[in-house]
Specification:
The complex is a heterodimer. By secondary structure, chain A is mostly beta strands. Chain A has one domain: Sandwich (Immunoglobulin-like). In chain A, strands 1, 2, 3, 5, 6, 10, 11 and 13 form an eight-stranded antiparallel beta sheet that branches. The longest helix of chain A has 19 residues. Chain B is rod-shaped, with a radius of gyration of 34 Å. Chain B has one domain: Immunoglobulin-like (Sandwich), CATH 2.60.40. Chain B is mainly β. In chain B, the strands form three sheets. In chain B, strands 2, 3, 4, 8, 9 and 11 form a six-stranded antiparallel beta sheet that branches. A three-stranded antiparallel beta sheet of chain B has the order 10-5-12, with no helix packed on it. Classes of the chains: A mainly beta, B mainly beta. At the A-B interface, helix 1, strand 2, strand 3, strand 4 and strand 6 of A face helix 1 and strand 1 of B. Strand 14 of chain A pairs antiparallel with strand 1 of chain B.
Amino acid sequence: MVKSRICLLLLLWLLLVVVLVPVRAQNWDWDLGLGAMLTLTNAVANLGELKTDPLNPLFEYFEAENAISFSVFVLFREWQVLLSGTDFVSGVERIPLEQLEWKMRDGTYRRMPAPGRNQEIMRVSGIGLYSGNLSFRLVLAGDERPGLYNSTLTLTLVNP
Amino acid sequence: MRKGRWRLVSILILPAVFLMAQPLRTANCVLELNIPERIEIALSVPVVDLGEPRRENGRLYYERINAVQVDYRCTQDDWEVRISAEDFRDGHRTIPISRLQWRTEDGIYQDMPMSGRYAVLARKRDHQPRPGIKHSKRISYRLELRGDEWGGTYSAPITYTLFVP
């Protein structure tokens, strides 16, 4: 009887360790909170080659379909998945984040909010595993300086 | 006794767990893109026919309005678009290219530079503050005859160069 209780307690501790300690390994960022877990499958996504609209050569853009995949494991309560980010930066050059558009699978492109602001991309509730794919498109204004640009995007799981 | 101790531990641990749990969970991802260097120049047509001669105030001339469109773009720190040409030729007969005049849509006619020289059509500082985007200029040509030209079908190569020092 006592042994089984000790085992139960150890199991509880093990669970607590898993719950409270964020784990970061290779391309996986995952973090388990009470009630939900957010998993991101890749830490870096490249928007690929510059594309040109064949009907309008002035329309130049980068596009990456399903560039980021994420999963949300929900135990209880309702959760929101928020997307935010920073401007694209290459040295002193900068491309505003609002120039980037995002969409979920089968959705339509919407502009990113300004840096520091969040955009709700998913709302989930009830026990289950929910997943999503984010596609991105960046239409160039045409006067951007050449270079390798980076932007850090953040997915945040919150209770609404 | 032991049972009570376990209960006490459990009661202490569980609230602590709830207190330690953070309401936010975040994951970051870096999005990257590479904008290549662009040095581009293109002409709308490869050949311009000046058409039939016209007469005005006793002067005979050829003219083609908006004969060619020059599209150019450069993301380098400094650049200019140059226009140069060779003399008109028909076999061994020639007409000096300096007799050909050219102008942009918003400009006035000016003589084409002599063979081997060039004129500047556009430069980076003309397009501030957005020098890197694609720009276009439409060029018109006019050739006024002086009467000393021999009959024939003349042609002259005209070259547009995007020059990056």
